[in-house]
Amino acid sequence: MLAFMTPAFAQQIPAETVATPTPVEAPAAQPVEPVPAPVVTPAPVTPPAVDTPPVDPPKKKGPVDSLKPGQFVWEKRESYNNPLRLVAVLDIQRLYVFDGDDLVGFATISTGKKGKETPTGAFKILQKKIYHESNIYANAPMPFMQRLTWDGIALHAGHNPGYPASHGCIRLPKPFAQALYDATQMDGEVVILASLTKPKPKPQPVPPVVDPQPPVDTVTPPVQPEQVITPTPA
């Protein structure tokens, strides 16, 4: 009996090949951007209203103009409605010229130094000379001189350093002194002030209040009735 013979190659049946799954790479995680928090703008806070008293600006001491020593302002006119009136102010070293109430010019001046102070008060122009030499101070030149006192006080052109430096006169810038000389008249008014600030009046002492004496009662004695004497019968 013939045995059924299976070829050798047929006996070697390869085991079933198991396919190994290829690992699949997971997709890379995408970075997650953080969601910004909403920006909350606080409501503006209005501060409570505070009544602040008005503050006065600081007062500058000295002249309010910007003239430098030797400078001046002059309004030349064909004629003037009034005799010119001059006002010199010692503490700010200025001279002002008025035609009535109109200011027609002003200038820097140099007045009397310490020990030779320019006097204050109201003066009149007593004398005018285009050129004069001092009779007191070594024939010092005094161009466009306008005399205010007979003892040496005058207006005239001279050195103007910006501070008191004269022997009592009022020195003016030369062109201003000439213009002023041509415009003023004899007996013209010149006022010299120590300052534009009015001094506060000193308080006057108040006399003590005395209580009035009470009136003295005058007692009038009562009028006695006349005594009637009846005669006794005899």
Give the CATH class of the domain at 72-193.
Mainly Beta
Structural class: mainly beta
Low-pLDDT stretches are: 1-13
Q: Secondary-structure element sequence?
A: HEEEEEEEEEHE
What is the CATH-assigned architecture of the domain at 72-193?
Beta Barrel
* Tally of individual helices: 2
Tell me how many strands there are. 10
Rounded mean pLDDT score = 79
Terminal residue distance: 235 Å
Strand adjacency order, main sheet: 1-4-3-2-10-5
How much helicity do the residues have?
Answer: under 10%
Tell me the radius of gyration: 56 Å
**Shape summary:** flat
The CATH superfamily name of the domain at 72-193 is L,D-transpeptidase catalytic domain-like
How can the largest sheet be summarized? 6 strands, mixed
CATH topology of the domain at 72-193: L,D-transpeptidase catalytic domain-like
Q: What fraction of residues sit in β-strands?
A: 15-25%
Quickly list its features.
four-stranded mixed sheet; 234 residues; L,D-transpeptidase catalytic domain-like; 2 helices; flat; single chain; mainly beta; 10 strands
